[in-house]
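INPUT
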Amino acid sequence: MWAYIAQRVLTSIPVILIVGVVTFSLLYVAPGDPAAIIGGDEASPEQLEQIRHQLGFDQPYHIQLGRWFLRMLKGDLGTSIFSKREIRELMAPRLQPTISLGIQVIFLSALLGVSTGMLAAWKAGARLDRGLMLFAVLGFATPGFWLAFILIWGLAVNLRWFPVIGYSPIGDGIIKHLHSMFLPVLVNSVLASAFISRITRSAMLEVLREDYIRTARAKGLAEFRVFIRHAFRPAAIPVITVIGAAMASLATGFVVTERVFGIPGLGRMLVEAIARRDYPIIQALLMSVATFYILVNLVVDIVYAYVDPRIRY
Amino acid sequence: MDAATARPGAVRLAPTWGQRLRGLRRGAWRLTRNEPPVMIGIVIMSIMVFLAIFGPTLARTEYTRVDPVNRLLAPSAQHWFGTDTSGRDVFDRTIAGARLSLIVAGSVTLITTVIGTSLALVIGYVRVLDNILMRAVDGLLSFPTILLALALIALLGSSVQNVIIALSITGTAGKIRLIRGAVLLLRETAYVDAARAMGARMPRVLFIHIAPNTLGLVMVQATFTLASAILAEASLSFLGAGTPEFIPSWGNIVGTGQGYVQVAFWIAFFPGLFLTVTVLAVVLIGDALRDYLDPKLRGRIEREQA
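OUTPUT
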């Protein structure tokens, strides 16, 4: 097991390096002179030269890349061009809404996806199964921003169950927070669960064809027991991976829903940074998200190997 | 079998391009006849292609025509989908959006399929390249698609052309990973060994023996690329980082319209509906195609029917 973990960690390192090179190069080739932006309009050519020298912009590409990597390793994400504040400082208040959204969405989408997928497998071929799978196809085809729009129109504007826009932090009370987050969580969960549901169904159907399932049925076990005890446990393995993969696709959903619902999270920070061409923020966010994604994949793979020993060898 | 008389390396043991294409054509015909969802998908796609080509001729007003007196009108016989904040006809703008959406998604699909498949064939076959380039692909795939596309557009500036470039870059990596997997399996097959033993060179092995067998996978993948490119373009434009505002796109119409949800839901509702229905049509076709081309699954369906 430890050998597998070590090997898996080692293969992640070049991937993180490549992510860093891509992210750094984006800023490196970005138009505009960062020294001119930092120095302001009144800076003289000599002052600009000095700023460039201080910040190392006059160094060749590979030296700058190396320094940038060292800074990232120390956790220094750089300084915003627009507000001239440290990006780490700017990111801190944005973390809570996005993490809260993420935890709720993963929980709800796993619950929705696994239960509907198992229900569809239980009734495979029946009308219920077809209905659920149609729902799963719809979940893939529907853009998050439009589903959000429909829900706002129906539940917030017409029925007035939820605020149209507005976010209350956890500090304002947990009930109020969950209420303000309900629609964004619902939109992301419905879309993510469609995928989880499809995979759960096909994994279950795959396992249900195994010989030991026939044996379990033959010895007279109740169908429900066969389903839960014998079929679900092996079927859960691919489902774990998919839930991990779904977390990555959440990034898109979060960028969109945070904008629609006015949630002051990391997704909105990115959209704002792009509108202002604040490249260091874009760079810091890209690097953090990609690193996070690589780490999630690493954990998922290790869990996978732990649950299914065949992978380790 | 004329294997003995053929010149070395020219033996065709794998299904040829012709056989593959004929099989696909027969399959496509059977699929449309037997599967109602495919029929629905094809009808919807035909309507969208028709709108994309003839939309501007069908439109009764110029989609840029501003008519402030008739702003925010509800849907009526005059304006089927109502009018927006500057009095522009939403129906005409939605139709114009079909053209943009299909041009962007079609180009992205074509570019990623051609470049991704060719690179995957070579990478999957040449071991040395595989180790180096797959790390790069893994690196690119670690960025969520939209985030990388957003960053690229921030760099290049937002225009239709740059949306196509950004989505092609992000899409090619995924395509390489998927098709390379198939190539790795195919290179170990007996007929590839046989071809190599006969003295066939790499280009011949790749093009005649391996490529035709990836055709099914490539086609299924192309439908999913088309669907996700339509969605990605719309999401980028919705966020205001894709198609510029002066060119109507389903995404940017919904983007400006969703702010008026309380007074004029139709501005965002109809273009979003067109978008969803179009993606749904592509996914229905792709799903049926995949089920049909996956022999494991096909066997099961036939057994279940028997």
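end of record. The two ends of chain B are 35 Å apart (CA to CA).
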